[in-house]
Amino acid sequence: MRGILRRQRLTHYAASSIGGFLGGYTILNHADIFSNAQTGNLIKLVQDLVKGDLTFVAFIFISFLVYCGGNVFYVLVRRKVRISMKIVSLICTCAAVIIVGALPFVRNDYIACYPIIFAAPIQWNAFKIAGGNSSSTIFSSNNVRQAAMLTTNYFISKDRKTLANAKFYWLTLLSFHLGVAFSCAVSLWLGVYAIWFAFVPIFATAAMYYAYQSEKFRVAGLVSMRNP
């Protein structure tokens, strides 16, 4: 059982590096747009409306609809197909990367980010739980909150389970920001073409997920042999 949980967490960390890479990529290459979440975009939308600057309002509003569309897609696909939504998420992320990589000539930064904006919430929903902990792999706010609170609680209670949970959130944050660092390094070298390096954390996540599923099948096989 410990092997299953360990591989599940490793899959989560790998997925977090995808979120970090894509978030870092769009911020670095597309006008500070954080495609993984909508808080900044919606603030920008309201600010532009209040100031009367309507230049990018339509593009920002469309990005909001695209993000909502990713969530709608997740709900509908989850109800209709039997395939793991983690696999669906990885396929959607691959498709988003290919589309963005094939359209480097797009001048509008929001349009260039739309495929990633669509794929981000699918990943968030698909990889939201690992080892009994709820955690986002596409942004850090709640992970910081959980890491800080659990660490504080551990120093008060000395409870080992609390320490393990705090470690999970700290490692998720570390994985996310390693993805950011990787995207920064390749973006400084290749600019918008750095998007193709997103396949590195994507393939790493796929490998971790395969190992996780293999361990589940192995343990299930051992259990069935002991209880024929």
Can you tell me about this structure?
This protein is an all-alpha fold. Helices cover 78% and strands 2% of the residues. It is built from 8 helices and 2 strands. It has helices spanning 2-29, 39-51, 57-80, 85-102, 109-126, 141-157, 160-190, 199-226; strands at 129-130, 133-134. The chain has a two-stranded antiparallel ribbon. A hairpin with a 2-residue loop joins strand 1 and strand 2 (133-134). The longest helix is centred in the last third of the chain and has 31 residues, at 160-190.
Sheet with most strands: strand arrangement: 1-2
Residue share in helix: over 70%
User: Could you tell me the mean pLDDT?
Assistant: 93
SSE run: HHHHHEEHHH
- Strand fraction equals under 5%
What characterizes the major β-sheet?
A: 2 strands, antiparallel
Structural class estimated from helices and strands: mainly alpha
- Outline type: globular
- Rg to the nearest angstrom? 19 Å
Question: Tally the helices: what do you get?
Answer: 8
* Parts with pLDDT < 50 across at least 5 consecutive residues: none
The termini sit apart by: 19 Å
**What is the number of E strands?**
2
Structure described in brief:
The chain is globular and about 55 Å long. It is 78% helix and 2% strand.
Provide tags for this entry.
mainly alpha, two-stranded antiparallel sheet, 8 helices, 2% strand, globular
List the helices and strands and how they pair.
Layout: H1 2-29, H2 39-51, H3 57-80, H4 85-102, H5 109-126, E1 129-130, E2 133-134, H6 141-157, H7 160-190, H8 199-226
Antiparallel strand pairs: 1-2
Helix pairs in contact: 1-5, 1-7, 1-8, 2-3, 3-5, 4-5, 4-8, 6-7
